[in-house]
From TrEMBL:
Signal peptide bounds: none
InterPro entries: EmrB-like, MFS, MFS_dom, MFS_trans_sf
Keywords: Cell membrane, Membrane, Transmembrane, Transmembrane helix, Transport
Originating species: Virgibacillus xinjiangensis
Membrane topology, from the record: Multi-pass membrane protein
Domain of life: Bacteria
Domain Major facilitator superfamily (MFS) profile: 17-466
Protein location: Cell membrane
Gene3D superfamilies on file: MFS general substrate transporter like domains (1.20.1250.20), Multidrug resistance protein D (1.20.1720.10)
Keyword Membrane tagged: yes
Record keyword Ribonucleoprotein present: no
PANTHER family documented for this protein: MAJOR FACILITATOR SUPERFAMILY (MFS) PROFILE DOMAIN-CONTAINING PROTEIN, MAJOR FACILITATOR SUPERFAMILY MULTIDRUG TRANSPORTER MFSC
Protein's name according to its UniProt entry: MDR family MFS transporter
Transmembrane segments: 12-35, 55-75, 87-106, 112-133, 145-163, 169-190, 202-221, 233-249, 269-295, 301-323, 335-354, 360-386, 407-425, 437-459
Length: 485
């Protein structure tokens, strides 16, 4: 590979690098929800049960969650350019396998390879952005990341809802593949080596414990929504995940060069912003999971209509994320996050009175306001936390943030779907739609309670205007949390 030396950041043309990173991350995250409304079509074509077919979505989240903790180690081992091209190349190969898949096993293989590449993309993009942009411009830069995080998963159901009604389900992968290949080709010429390599020693036991720990938890909680919390496989998976994670975390504190640096959690502001973004991401993914189920199975709407409910909110979130980034650069994160969490809590409560006759306009407006709130939370809170870390710790902080967000999305969605199912007045063959909708309303009460907890935590954030943050190259982080000002 050429250009192995780290480039002088001041001499780098940032625009093409930002473009290829955002495109790659957009495609990677888009694939998390792209199959959401296509599952019934895949079930019919490949003759699958619902429990089997849902793994096409779950496996993507599982492998993503497993890869993210390893990414900090990969960033410190390989050049930026080589790592990006490898990750994006894996994603493109996985997509091609999905296009050619003659059966479920091959399709699953393609999804696993896709997810392995995608799992590297988000932490890598966030780390590069924090390296190439000065601290006073990070809010704007991370606003673009927020655009990807919110816009891509929101667009997934819309795109898939339309395509699968018009064409074969493989058209979803046919859409993504040329874009992925084009991104790899452009990146080959424009990507530079940004991050510095420290060549940490490979600790294979940590990688195994991390894989079993995060994989076990994600598998267990993802399966709970289908099989119930008392299922033996669910219990064993969660127990194995917890035990492996305990040993993994203990080992990281003992290693001189840990794979995932848990010491970043010693910084109170980083920890509190991580918890807030976890709850916000639960609010985002859970709503996108529960609303289509309610609309299609209980209220009689089509897959395309349920996707269209998400569209205005997705567009608004995409539009507002860079604007919120600029507001963050000028005023800090605290009040942005507080207002955003207030909107998230209110909209969760507005979704607790759903009926068979709830209008499309009501669902769309509430979801749009909800997405506005999430856009004010995700990247401002994330950036405020990462700004407290030294440059050496940023890759570890980024990996930690993305790992916790992925775990929260899987666990939170599983819990809310289980609440929805268990709270339904009747789920039998003769159940009335109103009986099942009761479970949806209860699930949003739980979502509102979670948002309220995050709102209370947000009042304990300190202001994080750039001039107040001093980058300390030695310490884990310079920031601290103090009472609301």
């Amino acid at each position: 590979m050429r250009n192995e030396q780290v480039q002088d950041i001041t001499q780098i043309n940032k625009l093409p690098i930002v473009a290829v990173l955002i495109t790659g991350a957009f495609l990677a995250i888009l694939n998390q929800t792209l199959l959401a409304t296509a599952i019934p079509h895949i079930m019919a074509d490949l003759q699958l049960t619902e429990n089997t077919a849902q793994w096409l979505t779950t496996i993507f989240m599982l492998v993503n969650g497993i890869m993210i903790p390893i990414t900090a180690f990969l960033i410190e081992t390989f050049t930026t350019r080589r790592l990006f091209l490898s990750a994006m190349g894996m994603f493109a190969v996985g997509t091609l396998i999905c296009i050619a898949a003659p059966n479920f096993a091959v399709l699953m293989t393609g999804r696993i390879i896709q997810a392995a590449g995608a799992g590297i993309m988000m932490p890598l993009m966030m780390t590069i952005f924090l390296f190439i942009f000065p601290i006073e411009k990070r809010g704007t830069a991370m606003g673009m990341v927020g655009l990807v995080i919110g816009f891509a998963p929101a667009m997934g159901p819309v795109v898939s809802g339309w395509l699968v009604e018009q064409y074969h389900w493989k058209s979803l992968f046919l859409l993504v593949f040329p874009l992925a290949v084009l991104d790899v080709i452009i990146a080959y010429f424009v990507m530079k080596n940004i991050t510095e390599r420290s060549f940490p020693k490979v600790d294979y036991l940590s990688i195994i414990l991390s894989t079993v720990g995060f994989g076990g938890l994600l598998y267990g909680f993802s399966s709970a929504g289908n099989y119930g919390w008392s299922d033996q496989v669910v219990i064993i998976s969660i127990a194995a995940g917890v035990i492996a994670l305990v040993f993994f975390i203990r080992r990281q504190f003992q290693l001189e060069q840990p794979i995932l640096e848990f010491r970043v959690l010693k910084n109170p502001l980083f920890t509190i912003t991580t918890v807030i973004t976890m709850i916000a991401f639960i609010g985002l993914i859970a709503a996108e999971t529960i609303l289509p189920i309610y609309m299609q199975r209980m209220a009689g709407y089509t897959a395309f209509e349920s996707g269209m409910v998400i569209m205005p909110g997705a567009l608004l979130m995409g539009f507002m994320s860079p604007i919120n980034g600029r507001i963050f650069d000028r005023f800090g994160a605290r009040w942005l996050v507080i207002i955003g969490l207030a909107l998230l809590t209110i909209t969760s409560l507005l979704y607790t009175n759903l009926t068979v006759d709830t209008s499309l306009a009501y669902l769309t407006i509430v979801f749009t306001v909800r997405m506005l709130g999430i856009s004010m939370i995700m990247m401002p809170a994330t950036t405020a936390g990462l700004n407290q870390l030294s440059k050496k710790m940023i890759p570890h902080g980024s990996a930690m943030t993305n790992t916790m967000r992925q775990v929260a999305a899987s666990i939170g969605t599983a819990i809310l779907v289980t609440v929805m199912t268990n709270s339904a007045l009747d789920t039998g063959e003769n159940a009335l739609p109103s009986d099942m909708i009761h479970g949806v309303n209860v699930a949003f009460y739980v979502a509102a309670a979670l948002s309220l907890v995050a709102l209370i935590l947000a009042f304990r954030m300190k202001e994080t205007r750039p001039e107040q943050v001093k980058e300390n190259p030695q310490a884990v982080g310079a920031g601290s949390m103090k009472a609301g000002q």
